[in-house]
Amino acid sequence: MRPLHRNVWTLLSVSLMIASGCDPAYRYMFFPPDRTEYTLVPNPDLLYLNNDTSYYLSRDSLSVTFDRKTFKIEVKYFSDYQLNAFEFPDDSRDGEFSANPFTYANWVDPQLGYTPNRFTVFKVSIFNYASSKLNFDPELSFLITDRGDVLPGYGREEKSSRNQSIEGYFRKRKGSSGVDDEVFERRMGIVRQTVLYLGRPVYQGDSREGIVVYDPIDESVEKVKLVMKSFITGYDENNEPGEFLDLQFYFNRVPLQRERFAPVVATADTVAQGFVSGDAGSVASTLRNATFELHQIRYRIEEEEGAFVQQDWNVKPNALTSLVSFLKDSLRVRPVVKVSPAESPELLNAKVGFLFAGSSKPIFADIEVQSLANLIKRGGFLFIDNSAFTASYQYYDFMVALLQNIGSKLDRQVRVITIPNDHAIYKIWRKLSGPPQGMDDIESMPDRRNYIQGLFWRDRLVAAVSSKGYSMMWNQQDPNQLDQYVLGANLVTYAVSTLRAQ
Question: Most buried of 51, 157, 254, 322 (most Cβ within 10 A)?
């Protein structure tokens, strides 16, 4: 009993020290302060006061887009939680020696009792569809807060920065030990890979995205404006910047809701093993409660304008939601449905991207094709199906050519061939004899096909083109059309359980 008594007295002594205010570090060790995490979200009220319809919010209301048709700029705030948990998780676990250069990672300031912000961080994505050349200098951008603070953007490296740089920031704080040198180099390696700087222009058909960094904003700030001064929209005959725009993006500081940034839960590798034997029960039990993202891909068409464009990529608006309801009921999974433009970086989070083609011919710029290839590289699957029968263009030939174009962005180990009827997508969860009856069969279309074409990369199916019109049948929500839903469930099961980032 004596050792126990000694421990009790030790705890009482420490408690008395804390109560007497002896050292805040000890106090926070036992009684961390209540603290609310904050993030920055777009301010729609101020956004629309611009009276410029080029600005609009993303569907999840987390980013602001400036869209001039020939080019587009997306701006999104990255909270410390996002940077630590999703962007740089492996570099945010070593306390003060963490390599994540944008936050203090999991280090807690003993004098404060919490982790302060190191920087204010935004992701900027630039897409050049039809402009000759674009460019952006982060050092000409700045934040303005409702307190009147003006926070200029950081340059990347000391030698190329006119004012403050991230490299200079860390050099001033670097120790002299070998560990300090190693941490510094790891941080700068991440900075060089991710931080935007004024470099070569963004040419037509190209895109660029990266991080822009500012000093941390004060705890009392409620509103922030990000100003991009002199965004370069054109060059003169001497190849010097000659056309500019000043852009403004408004944000509110609000409490962070972590559930809005829930990670995609990867299913265990043992899932794939269950498919070899074709045991549907084993598959369903292993997938149960898995969370993943399914994206419907928004694309542009030749006729291009307004609501008609949206209707064309979404001509059967209940198709994906109907399939998802079937997945939830049958597989007991928790898919998250999103809509992403073909070029959106958000598409990389999808396990399956669904492209439902309407009656008008789609347009895919090179950067959009690259984005679809990147989806595949990240372990996603692309499923293309027709939501309408059309004579305005050769849908099937066009989409097969799109598969071949996507394959050219991967490597030489690609084939576009008919998917065999004994492939896993026909039996991985529930067995089918091959492609089930499609709307083309019901409507007796003259060019109907009894097969689905697939893109195989490194001998693994990563994309498929159907001309069967399964999305039309999902949209009908007919309980008698079970095989069509089974195919959709097989596709999703295959993607979630067997495809991994390459």
Answer: 322
Residues 6 and 84 in one domain: no
- When pLDDT is averaged across residues 396-418 and rounded to a whole number, the result is 92
Q: Are 227 and 206 within 8 A, CB to CB?
A: no
The Cα 88–Cα 307 span in angstroms is 38
pLDDT tens profile 5-59 = 555 555 555 555 555 555 555 565 556 677 899 999 999 988 777 778 889 887 7
Cβ atoms within 10 Å, residue 30: 10
With contact defined as beta carbons under 8 Å apart, do 106 and 84 qualify?
Answer: yes
Query: Do 27 and 134 reside in the same domain of the chain?
Result: no
Nearest-CA neighbor of 58 among 418, 340, 420, 439? 340
Identify whether residues 205 and 142 lie together within a single domain.
Answer: yes
- 228 lies in the same domain as 292: no
Using DSSP's 3-state secondary structure scheme, residue 188 falls into helix
pTM of the complete model:
0.56
Burial group, residue 9, by CB count within 10 angstroms (0-12, 13-18, 19+):
exposed
Q: What is the pLDDT of residues 363-382, one digit of tens each?
A: 999 999 999 999 999 999 99
Q: Report the distance separating Cα 111 and Cα 94, nearest Å.
A: 19
Are 102 and 210 in contact by the 8 Å Cβ rule? The answer is no
